[in-house]
Structures are given as C-alpha cells and as structure tokens.
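Researcher: Go.
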Amino acid sequence: MKLFVPEKKTAPGRRRPLVPRAWRTPLAVVGTVIAVGWILVAIFAPWIAPHDPLAQDLPRLAPPSAEAIMGTDANGRDVFSRLIVGAQTTLPLALMLVVFAMLIGTVVGAVAGYLGGWFDEVLMRITDMVMAFPTVILAMVIAASLGPSIMNAVIAGIIVAWPPYARITRSLVLSLRSQNYVVAGRLLGSSPIRSLLRDVLPNFAGPVLVLAALDIGTAILLLSGLSFLGLGAQPPTPEWGTMISSAMQNTSAWWLGLFPGLAILSVVMAFNFIGDSLRDALDPLAAREREAETPTDVEATL
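Model: Structure:
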C-alpha cells in the first residue's frame, strides 16, 4: 500500500527590485532628487526666473522680500533670477568638462596600458608632468594664458582633469590584458583596437564612470573658482562664481554670497552622493564588505 505524499509546491521566486539597493539608500535618494531638480531648473530657467537676470530695474542692495525673494545686487538685479539662469551656465559646462576629460584620459590610459613599451613610458611621463602641478594653480595659469572667458576656463579644466582618468584606466587595463579571455581573443585574430573595445573596455568602464560622477562636483568648484578669480565667466553673465565675487565688494549684503554658495554646496554634495551610490551599484561586493566592516549600534556601545 503506497502512501500518498503531496508534492511540495515551490514558493514563487522573489522578484528582483526595479531599483538596486544602492540607489534606495537615503543619500542616493537625496542626491538624485537634488541633481534632477537642478537639471530641471537649468532646462526651464527662462520660464522659472521671475525677472530678467540682466535688467537693472529693482532697488539696489535690497534684502530678500516678496518682490525679490533672494534680494537684489548692487546693480538692482534680481539675485534669484541670476541664480536660476546661472545654472544654465555652470551645470552644462561642468558636465562637458568631465566628459572631455574622461574621454581624453581613458584613451591615453587604455593605449598606454594595452600597448605598453615606449607608448606607456611617453604617455605616462606626460601624465606625471601634468599631475605634478597643483590642479587649481595650473588651471589658473592656463586660463590666464588663454584669456578670461568661461570657455577658456573649461579648456583649462579639461587639461588639468584628464590625468586621473589615464592613471586609473592604465592600472585596470594592465590587470585585464593578461586575462584568459583577452588572450584568447587575440589568438583568434582580434586586432588590438577590437580587443580593447570588446574585451577590455566593458570591464573598466564602471570605475571610470564612478570617478566621472564624483568629478562633476569638482568641476563645478573649479569653474566657479576660476570665475570668482576673474578668469572664467565675465560680468554681466550670470554665473555662481561671479556672483560670489561681486558679493565680496558688498559684505554687508549677506544674501549676495549666501544663496550662490548654497547652490554650489547642494550641487556638489548631490553629485558626490550619486558617485558613492554608483560605486556601490557597480561593485556590490565592495559595498557588502564595507557594510560588514561597519560596526552595528550594539557593537559600537560595547
């Protein structure tokens, strides 16, 4: 007599969350919201700004009020309108600076690491020569040599920003070019360029993208700093660095430097949060190791 044993029904598998865990942390959410908010502000700035950022038709050095919620500057221009329109200048140029620096540095580092030999020696010595100078000082020298303008400040930023990408790309390519799948591809007839693009590039793109996300905040600080020193955007162009520079001439008007400074602070922090979250999303093993090394609240009290 056979006993009837009902078959166990397999529990339905859990659905993978649409949003990875790294992007559901509080810092990731805050950074994404702030960054997206500023991007939308930059896109719709002409429709959001309540006044013409160049018009001088308001009372001079008026404190924040219902007519001008962030006050006015020494020329009677609305600070809020200039802050909003200034996002159209700062954010796209910082993004362009990072993209070009990433492309140049990635190409230099990939060629140096993959080909080796005298290619590696020449390219890395050039990289070392650029990195030997302090970043801000070298950017100031280049911008002053090219002439004070916002585009020249971007060019100066690109020149000083590409070496870290070359360094990290070279180190990753050196560790990847001897892998079995790369060697097998070369033995099967793949050209160096094809092997580099198909087999090596997908495996070092993650760290480079993380560095680029973190560098957006640095690029904003660099462009704003050059504009503050008079080497970037020139008046009357609304730009956050120039707004803070003009505030130095009227230190009693606290609102002139406070609001542009808060704007720079919020954007830099947002992209730093996004960079950290991107690193955790692309390298979940490292994120789990960091969580394991972090003591719990109970352990911290013992």
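Model: The mean pLDDT is 83.
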